[in-house]
Design the sequence.
């Protein structure tokens, strides 16, 4: 856990002079270069993947900043479907192609937790809470996430989520222009707090905004230094530690408040308390899943709303949701839009929305810049004639299949009517093999509710920063590994509220 000294160090750095910060940054750069040189090999022995050219850590820093470009360049420079590079003392192997994809997702010894822990660096790290977890605690967190998505609990979330949509969308005004990669993401962050934490936080807009700001600090503070040298108290690491400590405190205060009140509430925190889970499991569940859920679902929602701006599918979605309302809501009752949508049962949202399902699927394919990360905890394994040694980290970029023109013709074109790929693991938007997104049922519901509120509550189109209508939506930036957002200022939504009351 955190010590007083560590918190004091972080506070002291943040209050230090620019000269001191620059000096510390230069020291970190020197250490990186010192440790990096000589750690990369120029060639590979027979039976092992070829090494990516480059002899120091500076050659692999784009892995953290421009990953899509870095991996594509790696395949191009080596001319191979598998290549490797060293990250300090660790071996990292990148695989691609159909047979490698099958092996990657099918191998029971390729561990997700170990791979993600080393190579991501963007999840809040608190020992015993989100890191260094025993297998029993990890399994317990997964079990609780499944409980959150039981029919009764999910059904109970529909009305509060829609009320969050109404409240946030009302702040947009009757007309105007906004960046969907800011406003839609903010809405999804609010909804994620609602779905995965407690009313004490979700009902307090100030606390939600503060949490988002702190998680943004974690994102911006994830650098090569914080991932490769997490023990080094550099500027970015101290900011990450400070932000993590603040998030931890906010969550713990909310838990304490609930326990002191003795009042039972119908939310996820109450479910965790009723199960008599350890305090560390409860905090870890909320701390880790808040950011994981908000990033993934927020990115997908932002792009889904953007793609529908001037797409033919917009009318199909509106017709589909209006049919749901006709089937499940009495026409004689004058409810607001959010109230009408909350009357549609969970079963209908899940089984009577094929258009929304196809839109979500296509959005995940084209605008989810994921690179699957694993660590080989088993014996050496051979993929495409190359040895993946025990202990090595293994990466599979989703772009290898999702942006492959042989699998998806004209892959950058948004086309929800595409036929499903017939190749093995031809679609991995929700994961593949033994590893799937455990929160996908909740994520699908959230995406459908937000999209329905947006399309029925507003008329909108895509414009540039001058307010001129765009001829086509922007292209997702796969180098932005967290949000996939396009160039800043390249796309806005010009909206006007519909006749329906939100």
Sequence:
């Amino acid at each position: 856990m955190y010590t007083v000294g560590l918190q004091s160090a972080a506070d002291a750095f943040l209050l230090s002079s620019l000269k001191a910060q620059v000096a510390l940054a230069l020291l970190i750069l020197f250490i990186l270069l010192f440790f990096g040189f000589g750690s990369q090999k120029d060639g590979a022995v027979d039976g092992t993947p070829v090494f990516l050219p480059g002899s120091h850590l500076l050659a692999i820093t784009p892995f953290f900043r421009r990953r899509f470009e870095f991996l594509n360049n790696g395949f191009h420079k080596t001319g191979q479907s598998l290549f490797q590079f060293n990250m300090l003392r660790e071996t990292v192997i990148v695989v691609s192609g159909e047979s490698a994809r099958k092996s990657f997702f099918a191998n029971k010894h390729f561990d997700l937790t170990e791979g993600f822990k080393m190579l991501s660096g963007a999840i809040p790290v608190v020992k015993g809470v989100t890191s260094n977890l025993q297998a029993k605690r990890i399994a317990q967190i997964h079990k609780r996430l499944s409980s959150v998505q039981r029919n009764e609990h999910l059904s109970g979330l529909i009305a509060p989520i829609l009320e969050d949509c109404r409240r946030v969308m009302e702040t947009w005004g009757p007309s105007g222009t906004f960046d969907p990669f800011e406003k839609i993401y903010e809405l999804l962050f609010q909804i994620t707090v609602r779905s995965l934490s407690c009313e004490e936080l979700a009902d307090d807009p100030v606390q939600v905004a503060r949490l988002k700001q702190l998680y943004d600090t974690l994102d911006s503070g994830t650098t090569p230094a914080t991932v490769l040298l997490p023990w080094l108290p550099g500027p970015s690491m101290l900011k990450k530690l400070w932000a993590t400590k603040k998030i931890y405190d906010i969550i713990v205060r909310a838990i304490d408040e609930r326990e002191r009140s003795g009042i039972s509430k119908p939310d996820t925190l109450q479910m965790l308390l009723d199960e008599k889970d350890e305090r560390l499991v409860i905090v870890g569940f909320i701390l880790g899943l808040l950011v994981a859920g908000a990033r993934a679902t927020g990115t997908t929602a932002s792009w889904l709303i953007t793609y529908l701006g001037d797409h033919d599918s917009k009318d199909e979605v509106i017709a589909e949701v209006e049919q749901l309302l006709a089937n499940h809501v009495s026409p004689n009752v004058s409810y607001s839009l959010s109230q009408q949508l909350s009357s549609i049962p969970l079963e209908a949202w899940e089984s009577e929305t094929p258009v929304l399902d196809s839109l979500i699927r296509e959005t995940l394919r084209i605008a989810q810049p994921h690179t699957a990360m694993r660590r080989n905890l088993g014996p050496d394994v051979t993929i495409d004639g190359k040895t993946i040694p025990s202990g090595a980290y293994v990466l599979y970029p989703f772009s290898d299949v999702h942006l492959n023109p042989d699998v998806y013709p004209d892959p950058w074109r948004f086309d929800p009517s595409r036929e499903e790929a017939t190749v093995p693991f031809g679609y991995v938007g929700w994961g593949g093999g033994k590893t799937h997104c455990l929160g996908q049922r909740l994520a699908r519901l959230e995406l459908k509710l937000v999209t329905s509120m947006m399309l029925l509550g507003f008329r909108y189109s895509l414009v540039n920063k001058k307010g001129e209508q765009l001829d086509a939506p922007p292209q997702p930036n796969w180098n932005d590994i967290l949000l996939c957002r396009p160039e800043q200022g390249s796309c806005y939504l010009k909206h006007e509220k519909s006749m329906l009351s939100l």
